[in-house]
Design brief:
Layout: H1 2-9, E1 16-23, E2 29-40, E3 46-55, H2 57-71, H3 81-97, E4 102-111, H4 114-120, H5 122-139, E5 145-150, E6 153-161, H6 164-186, E7 192-199, H7 207-213
Antiparallel strand pairs: 1-2, 2-3, 4-6, 4-7, 5-6
Helix pairs in contact: 4-5, 5-6
Amino acid sequence: VRYLLQMHLEGQSAHFESEHRMRKKDNSYLWVLVRGLAVQDASGQVTRLAGTQTDITVRKQNDEKLIHDARYDSLTELYNRAALVEQLHRSIERNRRHPDHKYAVLYLDLDHFKEVNDSLGHAAGDEMLINIARKLAAIIRPTDLAARLGGDEFVVLLEGIHDIRDATIVAERIQHEIEQTILQFLHRPIVSASIGLVLSQPVYKVPEEILRDA
């Protein structure tokens, strides 16, 4: 804010305009849009700034929600397909430049999940998916990524692994955690999880090829 104001006062910008936060008396914040022009006296000295200050908090919140919704699954709060594909592009490029930097993709599908919705209802099915998503988020490292592709399909991207064994260990842990979650809902294992696993290879050029093979 100070920089933009100084630019205008020195005549380097036609007008002053800034979006920034202001702290209120209760220590919460609001966003404001400030626009103005420097007013000079007869000697050319700036005496004040004439303009407007507008509360744009709601607009900022809406913008943040749009950005969030573009990258996250609305039910589970995991990343969505678009965010996953974006990160896979980076992983492919990183592996191309540094072959020692390996990654793995785990493609997870719940078998017979339709029976949950049919027997317990869609609300219970959604709750199970949310619980599974939380388990995935808890298992992976901060450098990894968990995404929901839709329905009962999930993908986990493991970054910086050494070999296939690193990925299979994670896959086995995911299997165990999902089995425990399913038993909490059904008390019998009519639903299970299938996990396909693909390790990074130079042959992969686009994310769709990796997801297809996984």
